[in-house]
C-alpha cells in the first residue's frame, strides 16, 4: 500500500515554504506521509489527486483574492476547507464573533463610500484593509494625526477595499501579542509576537514574518478560555466542529485592565511558530494530519 501523499501549499516567492516550516516534510515522512511543496497557482500540479492539500504560505493570496478563492473551491481535500478560507480572509468575521459574545478588540467596518467615523474616545487608532495579510496596508494614527488616518482610509477605499478601524491597545508596545496554536481543536503551544506597527512603510507578508522574532510563551487560563471560546464560536458559525479545523492560531492582546481580547483568528495560512517552540509541537501537527487522512 502506497504512502498517503499531501501537498504543502506555498507561493512563488517561497517555493520551498517559509523557514518556520522547514521540518515539516521530514517529520511527515518519518510518519509515513509523503509530503512536498507546491505553489497554489502552478498549473502543472494536480491538487485534486492529493490525499490532502494543506495551506501553509500562499502569501500572495490577498493580491489575487478572487483567483485564490476559486482555486480553493477547486481543491476537494483542502485544509482548512475553502468555506473557512473564504470566511477568514475577510476581517469582517471579527464583528461576527463580537456579536456572538467573543471578547474582541472593538472594531468598526467602514465600506467604500461611507464616511470616516469611529468613537471619539479612541485616542489612537489602527486602520487596516478588511482583506490583507500581516501588517501590509496597516496604519497606526494618534488623535492629532486624524487627517492622516482619513487619508489612509481614503486610499484603501480608492483601492476598492473596505477598512477595519480599531483602537490601538498600548499593551502591544510592552508585552506584544500572544499567539495560541491549536491542532484539530486541541491546544498545542503558544508564542509571543512583538509589536510591528512602528510607522515604517507597509512591507510584504514575507518581510513581516521575518520581522516577527517570536519566542515561546505560556498561555494563562484566561487567555486559553478566550481563545477556545473564539475557536468554538467560529467553528459553529462555519457549521463545523473545532476538531475539523486542522490548525488555528488565535492572536490575543491585553486591554488596559490586562484582560485578553481577540485580535485575529488565523484559520487560512498562519505562521505556526514551529521554529521557536518545543519539537513536540511539530509532532502534534503531524498527528493531526494523520487523523485527517484517516477521516478522508
From TrEMBL:
Coiled-coil stretches noted in the UniProt entry, renumbered to this chain: none
Top-level taxon in the UniProt lineage: Bacteria
Annotated keywords: ATP-binding, Nucleotide-binding
Keyword ATP-binding appears in the UniProt entry: yes
UniProt domain ATP-grasp: residue ranges: 94-294
Keyword Nucleotide-binding applies: yes
Gene3D superfamilies for the chain: ATP-grasp fold, A domain, ATP-grasp fold, B domain
GO molecular function terms attached to this record: ATP binding; metal ion binding
InterPro entries in UniProt: ATP-grasp, ATP_grasp_subdomain_1, DcsG_Biosynth_Enzyme
PANTHER family: GLUTATHIONE SYNTHETASE, PTHR39217
Protein name per Swiss-Prot or TrEMBL: ATP-grasp domain
